[in-house]
Amino acid sequence: MADTLLSIQVIPKTPGGEDSIPYVDRAIEVIQKSGVKHEVHPLETTMEGSIDELLKVVKDMHTALIEAGSPSVISQIKIAHNPKGISMDQLTEKYRP
Predict the structure, then answer these.
(1) CA distance 22 to 19
(2) Closest CA to 70 of 23, 21, 25
């Protein structure tokens, strides 16, 4: 069972002031390729897994955005960590139809 939920919003600086959405799409692609359970929402993406694997995904996202041409990246991150286990479903099941 996962012990960590990590929500992230990336705010990439763009080289010429162009739209940041292609960079955000690239960051989400990194998450998708990582294989971790995740949910994409309008303002952030939440991932579920071990704290070490999720922090590696964050690092990989930043690396990918810099390699894509972003001169710098800011990420806003929220982490919920429970060594006994935690899941997105557990926290949201009462709100689902």
Answers:
(1) 7
(2) 23
